[in-house]
Design goal:
This protein is α+β, with helices and mostly antiparallel strands. It contains nine helices and 18 strands. The strands form four sheets. The protein has a six-stranded antiparallel sheet with strand order 7-12-8-9-10-11, with helices on both faces. Strands 13, 14, 15, 16, 17 and 18 form a six-stranded antiparallel sheet that branches. Strands 2-1-5-6 form a four-stranded parallel sheet, sandwiched between helices.
Amino acid sequence: MISGHPGPLIGIMTARNANGSIAGNGPLFIALQKKLISLDGISFVFTAEEVNEDYIDGYSYLPDKKNWIKAKFPYPDLVYNRIPFRKSEQDVHCQKFFSLLKEKQIPFFNPCFIDKYEFYDLLKNHELLHSFLPQTILVKQKKDLFSFLEKHKSIYVKQTQSSRGKGVYRLKLIESLQIQLEGLNIRETYQSFHHFWDEWNGQLLERDYLAQEEVKSAEYEGNRFDFRILAHAANDDYLLTGVGIRQSQNQGITTHIPAGGRLLPYELLQSSAHDQFIQTVVPQIGKSLSKQFGYFGEFSIDAGVSKSGDYYIYEVNSKPMSFDEPGIEERKIEQLCRLFLKLAELD
């Protein structure tokens, strides 16, 4: 049993891949361990299945030896939820462990993945934030989706519980009432909405899709761009950690880097209006999420600006991917470790 640590003991919760290996963002776990050790703390990675009544089996990274060791750990001072799979997070083992943490009064964040429509539903009545939301509906009935498409002419349909641009399609109503469907790896034209619905209704209804009006995004050098905004909790507020620009290249469906998007420095397109929008929405979103779902220590925002200068919040991610900008990633590690110490009351 590893115990007697001078600083905070941080448990990083993840899950296992189908082949039994530990899943998750290894480079992030290593970076956090190195920073925590410099603060006289230590971290370990574990899954819900390895939780026992009096201890937790986990894995800790040893920077000097550049390898991981397996050991038994006492219950940590704080748990950082980095479970990468929605299904794993909803598993009975995870839910029981979250309940146990509450009983033991051990702080943890972030409590859950964010459902895209639940997020929209939360903010649509917010005094300030509702004005930044694209019009959105759940895909439930044929006639409602057709009416929505008829109104906006071009819309996105996306799974309410997906990430990284997966399961995103653009639907366009073109002349003679034909339907054009575009995805990352698909482009089809249907003679009518009825033809489209006959082929797609099974997937749209079974996998929980929403429909969202297409925003005519501002462009840089001929291609649309979005903001990727990273924020962390600080005391009773939420502060901006960094902003990056993601630009579409070969396709206009998504700006995500894995889907062929391009990274641009925020400074290239920075303006006082962009800054004001970002500084306005960050604390409001953070407080709304924590009030509704449980404590959020970090999140990222996908947002954009239209050609007419209107700002939009597209979605929020509770477990942000690594940022490709080294400076932002470095500040993330710093902010997370400060938050760990604060919540563990060892600051």
